[in-house]
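Lecture 7 notes. Example A: sequence first, then its structure tokens.
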Amino acid sequence: MEAGEDFGPWLARQLKLARMTQTQLAETVDVTRAAVSAWITGRATPRPETIERIARALDTDLATVHTRTTDTLAGLPIGWYHRPGHADGGRELGNAAAFAFDADVGVLARETCQNSLDERLTDNDRPVRVRYTIHELTGEALDAFRRAILWDDLHPHYTAVSEAASQQKVGRVVDAGVRDMFEKSRLVLLRVDDYNASGLTGDDYDDGKFSAVVRRQLESLKSGNSAGGSYGLGKATLWATSALGLVLINSTLSVPHEGRTERRVIGRLELPWRFVDGRPYAGPAWLGRPDPDSLGAEVARSWWADEEAVASLYLDRDSEEPGTSFLIVGAHDVASLDQSTLDLDVEDEAEGDDGTRDIRAMHRRLVEALGRDFWAAMTSGGSRLPLLETSVRTLRNGEVVIEEEKVDPAVHQPSRTRALRAFYDGTTVDRLTEAGQVALRTVPFRLPLSGGRRGTLGSHPAVLLVTDAEDADGVSNQVHSLRGNRMTIKRSGVSGLPLGVNAFQAVLLMGQAAGESIPFAEEAEEFLRAAEPPEHDRWGQTEELTLRWSHTAHHRIARLTTEVNAAVKEVVARPKRAGGQESAKLRKALTVPRKAVHRRSSGSVLPELDALDASIGASGEWQITAEVKLPRGDDELPAMTPVVLLDVRSGSRPKLTWAELVAVEGCEVEDGALRFMPRARRAVFRGCTDIAGHPVRTALTRLVLELRAGKGE
């Protein structure tokens, strides 16, 4: 049984909705005006026989008055409120926030799951459960849904937008969505439900989560300091994914509002400026019950719906758990329009004849996006519980097209999931010696002082995990970086890997993802959150980072990336074999011309080769590792080209070509030349020669390795 609202506040609101005064109610139920005032202020309660007369006066049943879990049907009906055009003639031809993201279900999954993670209830240690339901409506089911959303009231507004579509980008999308619905007699609904989340709490208009999502733009009210969102833009992906610009909402609250928690319902429509029946309208509209306190009782606010109403709007929830359901009406996925991205198998092709190919493709893309971006949040181990559970199901007119599919991180990211579980279980190793092991390194992240001050606040030990790659991981030799909410933020490849390394995957845990008791975990969370753009797909220079820290604060992140890459290379590099007579012979066959130290005209010293190692590969190629000594100083060093020559007794030395040339440390390879990192003191590179260019058998040759200034010298 739901906990009903107190009688006094409930009765006061019913009188407003019915546009009835306290005096009028007193006369109708045959009591004094003072008695009604006492009921509303909570000083007294009406007798049972009086409650019956109150129910008749409000045109409702006794159960509604006794339980007080919903409003009566008397007075102001549910309807659409369209914001009037601005008095100064200003026009918004669409919601600019929606253009921050693509109309892509992969982007939608990333933003909505991030928001649900941010609103997870943490007191019970259970994960937030997010379910995506793709539901295609046709025929009578579609007609019934249009009646439920009062389509006849919306139709003139859509018609006005369609007529001006040629001049409006948003209008063209909306016009195409309306035509698709009528010409194909189909409509795709995409519902996002979360459970064990806070829900849209707070007042309709005052500061709170409800108003931040439903009423406002660029406002982010998050529950924790490890929250992913910070711009207040992510919610715009819901409306961007709707070709009709329409989203319906049903929220179960974790904190009661007006004495209730269940079935708080509202709809929001995003259309461009339009002219309808001689009146201008600014853009947004809301579906709800007219607020008696607004001017002319026109502004629509949320209402407490009954079970029949939420069922007709396809907003019914599975349980009383707190959380919110967002229904995207007319969902479209721009990426799915490119058939090359679908990667449908033979079974999909065969089943596509029944007209479900589009929703099957949308289902698959949602599953892939969730597994790619949130594998870490769904991973558990040791004492760590998962933060998130996700699933996707697909229906057509209530019939199952694809059964509910729970996203398993071990299927979508097996290597990284294994690495994270090993960290949670405490089974990591120092070095990879067997398949399936996970190596751990800590990499210092030096946090700067805020306010533009010089110096370091402290060193946050980020956790680096490295393990062997598997085919299902996707692109190998990458580092996935994440922080407290365990959503993958940054993906980056590791350049300059040693020759012949095994394919690997690496995970970098920052902030609270590395452990809440790790030094400076909260400070790292705050810094990295400020370093994320609205897409939350990298760390770098942002306006907030510049304002709160300094214009050079992002250099700390670049330095961290360099140190992470060096640590990865140290883990995956094959250990050098003990030197023997054969190694000594090879080293003798490889020489470096020793000349006077070269200086540039400015007097600064050029980089010079300092140490060499060589071996002959299985195909007969020379495999060379060289160390370069870099001069001290702040001057930018010139590019240097490593050149390998055959040592001959007379004549010019034949030049060999490189089959491969890679940077290992302190440098980068660019067009066959080495560019050195600022402030580095040494650099290491590796290369192997092209066997096709060897004039004689490798074992019979001696080489000379030179380092020449410039490119291609």
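Example B, a different protein, same format:
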Amino acid sequence: MDLDALRFGNFSALDAAITDWQQMVTKLADLRKDAQDNLKTKADKANWAGVNAQVSRTFIDKTAGEFGDAHTQADTIAKILADTRGELVGYRDELNLAVERGLKKNLTVLDTGNGSFTVTMNIHPDRAAKGTTVPEHGQQDVDALRDEVQRILGKATESDTTAAQALRLIVDQAKYGFSDASYADRDSAAAAIKAADDLAKIFKKNPHDVTNTELNQLNSTLATYKNDPLFAEKFATDVGPRRTLEFYAGIADPYQASYDPKRGELAKQFQKNLGITLGTATLSDSDSMQEWERQMVKLGPDPLGIDDASDPRGFAVMSNLMRFGDYDDQFLNDYGDKLVAFDKEHNVKDLSPWVNNWNHADLNYWGKDDRGRDPMNGFLEALGHNPDASTQFFAQPDGAGPTVDKDSEVNDHLKYLTKDRIWLPDATFDGNDKVVAGRDSLGHALEAATTGYAYDAPAASGKDPLTPGNLDHRTAETAGVMEQVAYLYGGEDGPKMLHDQPELADSLGKMGSAYIDDIDYGLSGVGDHAKDAGDFPARYAGRADFGNEGAINFLSVLGQNETSHGMVTAGQHIYTLSLLDANPPTDQASYEHGKDALFMEAEARGILDHSRVQQAETDFAGEAEEANKSLGRSADWGKFAVGAIVGGGIAAIPLPGTTAVGIVVAPIAADIAGEALNTFIGQETDKAVDKAESDSTAKAQLTSQQFYRAGADNLGASYEQYFNDSAKYSGQADSDDVVRNLKTTYLSTGSDEDDLRGRPPYKD
């Protein structure tokens, strides 16, 4: 900064700009509130149909969000400008005081242009007026004034340039719309940029020469700034995509960490912190980040040409970093398209380019069953954390529908990953080599694509961790993915696919539970006619349409596996109870709705339970005790409801028997739970406490006869609870022979009664 620019600068224009921005912040705050409270809230409550349901609601949601981002960006700009103005005025005052002190020693400071200046004598003694005593000074005084002025100008220059840099980065973050980057002042933005510069310098070193102290510093800084948009972009673009991959491969190389447990733990945290940071960086729309993303995708198929980690391909390294973080949707889709295309070309039995005897690149420190050699695993984990990107990646092809009933209506990526790809286990020495971690990751990606939630979204406990407002995140697009999943796993090959891919059972159970209302709607018709939207209303626009036979087949396959059977049964019961809550037997119309809900559960549970019994008898032919134990475990499906939090149109059910994050989502008929649903959840919680105090292993044995009896008893309990306080409609139900018909519907519904009622059990 030039000396005269600071000394004589006119701040009136800057003052006016700050005032304008502050006024804009106030106006945008009102617009943001109005957009959220009126525009979005009314849109959420509106009964949309047709094109409006698929386009307008999404547009309104994004528009409301843009008002929020506009306010955030304006507020940040106003704060940085005001803070910088205050600093510059302070430096100007310091400079003027320093000049005044210099004059007292007969020294003056002159601007010589281009940021330079000179300290010189103000009045030569020989030219002083007669009788005037000129103050004396020495070289020490000259040096001191020079250093003080230089320090002030340096600080002012830093304030000015870092403010300009921060403002440019903020504006460039969003090519269209506004950035949500928020900073309280110039100092905080400048600190983020400086931290990025400092870390980028370490990345220039040979990773083998990076000490544990430096690696700890990297982790500490990344952990602090991993979600900071300015830091993330500056860091990523300064380091560059190739160097990022080379450096991580060098740090992660097992031959570097295996002899130092501390180093290995630092590398583990580094993988996570770096991955999250890079994800944050990709959310920027700046030209430099767009180029970074293009180069990263381009590097994917080729070896990096390094000595570390068996000279991995770019895909192998980047996929392990993207296991963590929120990545740009388009980047993930571009990356995934190229990865799948490359993978298809090398999908040859016993010739995997990833998992083979000469590849010793353990690039993943998270999980004993996944060394990280197969890049498809990490990429699918990234999709599992990025629902919108996953929904796009597995989107239903144009022209498919109204139901998916042929292979040409299935997304090519989905078809390849579920049916054609050769999946290999990639466990560490102390892992389970029978587990194919990649298929588990595929399940995670499909959960996100169909439910709209990250697969490991935390279960509700204490306070709601989910999005405020309407918690049902399903859309016509997520339903399009779900229809494909139901077609594939409910198809003729479905039983074999589920048997060969046991790692997907929990994910399929989650998906089935999340769409149980649409499955019931499909079951409610006669063939594909007369489906009852009155009894099973759509909870979102563009609901999934599985067709009557498709719904039956999908349920029958889910019923074959213990895990998926339990999750879907719990989802079905919760949804039924919510329908009973929403339609108390106080009038004829509600009675009819409640009765239909009970019959639908009987039918759906019949399909699920018959499939479960058949599969247990097939799996354990000649081993009655094992078959009975399997049925005993399946009869304990109520464990999935323990700890459920209900609100916003869903029940969020924590995964049982584990501290792992993740939820099973089940739709409910109203925004909150009623008495029937709350009673059920409370009873199951009490049972869980009782079982925790005793060994239930010996008790968990049921013959098929007892298993069906338990199912019928559960349906009977729902019947009694529903009609308990209504003598009038209890009598009508008795006249209508509802009990007998419920029992018949449950016990006579299943693939063993009629080949058209589902898929037969899988047989080796």
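Note on Example B: The two ends are 79 Å apart (CA to CA). The chain is about 60% helix and 5% strand.
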